[in-house]
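Reviewers asked in the last cycle whether our approach scales beyond single polypeptides. To address this, we selected a multi-component target totalling 881 residues and predicted its structure end to end. The input consisted of the following lines:
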Amino acid sequence: MERGEVGAAHVTTPSVQPAGPALSRNTRRRAILGLIARRLAFAFPVCGVVLFGVFLLAALSPFDPLEQYYGVRLETASEQDMARVRAELGVDDPVLVQFGHWLGGLFSGDLGTSRSFRQPVAEVLAERLPWTVLLCAAGLLVAIVLSVTLGVLAAWRQGGWLDRVITSVGHALEGIPPFVLALVSIAVFALALGWLPVAGLTDAGAALSVGQVARHLVLPAVVLGISQSPWLVLHLRQSLLTALTEDHVTGARARGLSERMVVLRHALPTALLPLITLIGVRVPELVTGAVLVEEVFSWPGVAAAVVQAALAVDFPLLAMLTVLATAATLFGSLFADVTTALLDPRVATDG
Amino acid sequence: MRSRAILPAIAITAAVIAAGCTAPADPDDDQTNDPRSMVLADSYEPDSLNPLLGYAAEGAAKFYDGLLAFDGQRDLRPALADEQPEVSADGKSWTVSLRDDVTFHDGSELDADDVVATYNALIDPAYASTLSSEFRMLDKVTKVDANTVRFSLKFSYAAWPAKMVLGIVPSEALRNKAPLEDSALNSEPVGTGPYKLVDWRKGDQMVWEANPDYWGGVPKISEITVVFAPDDNTRAQRMQSGEFDGTVLPPTLAKSFEDSDTYRTVYHKSADFRSITLPSDHPVTGDSAVREALNLAVDRQAMVDGLLGGHGSPASTPFSPALPEFVEPEATFDHDVAEAERILDEAGWRAGDDGVRAKGGQRAAFTVMYFADDSLRKELAQAFASDAKDIGIEVELAGLDRTAVQPRLAKDAIVLGGGNPIDPDPQAYDALHSSRAGDGYANPGHYRNDEVDTALDRARGTTDPAQRAAYYRQVQKAYVADPGLVYLVFLEHAYLMRERWSGYQPVVEPHTHGTTWGPWWNVEKWAPRT
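The resulting structure, written as structure tokens, was:
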């Protein structure tokens, strides 16, 4: 019922095309599947280019991989021995040789060895990736809940004190890096108030359990969520304000529907669509935020490993992490587009 | 403006958290009160637990045993060896017989093959071990019979027993002749040691469990958790809240716990020195008058008091007071600024208009580098620069990362550190012998003194302890007459420990330390107090 009203209101917007009644449901489904297929096909060359770029950058890096390999033993190692180890590990081979070597291994299912962790890359990922996924998912959930709640409150009471507080805090938070937020929250909630643990995955000496991890997840997830939410809150508030002035909302009001019904059932659905796109587009920021948050909270995820891998010019690990981040970004935007296309029949499926 | 905006954000967060988190009683509380378990916090997480990649190279490896082990009193006692090694008259051949009742954590028995494989991997370049340079004297290791091995050295090396603390790994783990960078031992150690690794959540914590079959008797503390908390201030704060049973802290932070009822603060002597190299080829630092004057001008006691919180000792040579029988008491530099200035004046270094001396158009100025991530080295470099300025020598400081330091080692001075608590040879020979000049971080200033060279070589070549000590005293006398570096201080390491266990024994420590050393170096012998 609302769909029809929405369509009527938006039919003149340039970004959407009216879906003629001739287009059957099947054609639409095929169009969306086509969109997914095209994006996935496109993802491979993108990842390839990104990989090669990372590899070139790693080759140009001023850091010496041997420094990480030797650690404190660097100060007792002789030059002759270091030269031999260099040759044995192949760190001075030409860039293309190293890349070919790694690529060859990749096709036979071997992701290579992470020099900074002194472990196969597959093991590093298996140990760490789940924690990052958990943190990002929880952070995203916090961000969505916060932004929908606060965005609706602010738009509903536009100009009121609540709106002014939410908007100014939102703008201020846009400028605060997540690690500042993380340090402040540790100082307040962990050290001063003692409500939550400072860092880590569990208490010192405690076994891994759902309760433990949940307690330790609260602070990092909330910090990550809050650091991502200002854009979403402000954006949702803005699109909700626009939606509230549209004809179908005015119509609903004129029909005497309750304010609650008008805002939540008539205006919000229109405003949520662009939010989904925005969430998809902001996946890279979520990943960057996770790097900082994991570092501060000693969260043993994959994002904190990025820094270590980069400093050690640990190409095999760095490459996999970059591909994962690229894939997350591409998938984020694909997810947003597909969701929008599914929810809104007027949106074209690019191509 | 911004900080005012943070407050409401905090309030919102507080509400969210307070709602979602009425913390239930932690079921693990009981476990942390069990005196058979212990939780330690460490500042440094090892990259690898493989002895061949440098894990616990000075012993106290917990998962591993060496042929010999440190006894805390500067002596080495047999561990996997069943008696002291036998040395040939020329000091080049060392024979060791093994205990026959030792098994690895995986159940396999220890025999000569494991020892041979371990030491071979050090010297075989195919394994790319990071310790190979420290074993350059080792020519080959051979199996004499199932329980006896013989080490053949390239030259007489009296300090060889100090190398035999290296952890022995099972030969099966070294079957594949490939670089050790992805060896399974790196994260899943299999040794003969008193503890087994049960869990290692990288970046977070590690859990050790007592080895029920340990040849030296089952440890009474059955579980030890080591939590990694690299930031010193955070670790101190978590100690304040009583989260850990012990940790390592910089002496200046440990001081604040001296009145604590919960923890005892202990300071351990170490062979860990800090020095400043003086490049011989540099027109200023190569001048013997400048070298002597700098040694007289630095106020070492002020560095100990001001930068180490009083916990350290002045250093004039690489010979630590922790190894007293090797120390020549006369071989020290007094703090004598007037004498330093007299020496410079006499050598023709005259003060210029800007207060900096010059000689024949050469300003008395040079650069001291330090590793930018090491705050103590930075503070020592600053103190050194300020002392040098008092006698009219200008020191420019450069905090650099290791890659940038390497190519400049021969031209610019650098703050160095290191130290072996068992034998003076590793640190004295590498720092002072001319044959080691310019090899990586060994003798980077190209110091050369024939008398020092000869005495160092002779000390290596004799196994008679009294004779060795005499040679080392000779080294120090010759060095002090012609100094080539400025030794500053020997550090003490500070630890906090909960007093719930008996068995603590003070120890002299190496450069690398943390929870494998510290009060817990012999934790396998500790027991809960009754």
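Chain A touches chain B through 74 residues (CB under 8 Å). We regard this as preliminary and will revisit it once experimental data from Aim 1 are available.
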